[in-house]
Amino acid sequence: MSSPEQFVLMVNAVILICAYFVIYPCFAGSDQNHLAINDLIANACALLVVGLNFWGSGERFDLLITEVGWFGFTVVTFLLMELPLFVWYARRHQLFRSNDE
Fold this sequence. Notes:
The protein is mainly alpha-helical. The protein has helices spanning 4-27, 32-54, 70-92, and strands at 61-62, 67-68. 20% of the residues are buried.
């Protein structure tokens, strides 16, 4: 890896692809509660992998407008990368349909 930022982005991408295309359809389906729990687990996995690599290193990550530590960079980039996947998944599995339909 050429930079710590690329490492974190790759970890996030791999976890999100596995989550949204393999794990969530099998274990969450259209259940919002299961999806939220699985998403917390996915985010925790990303934090665990990145934390094992950068805990105590003092490494700073460029977040375009400021520099942050590994924890902040991982959480912010995970959420930004996840947003389009979540919108796609929510539409595909009709997560927010009303009960009247």
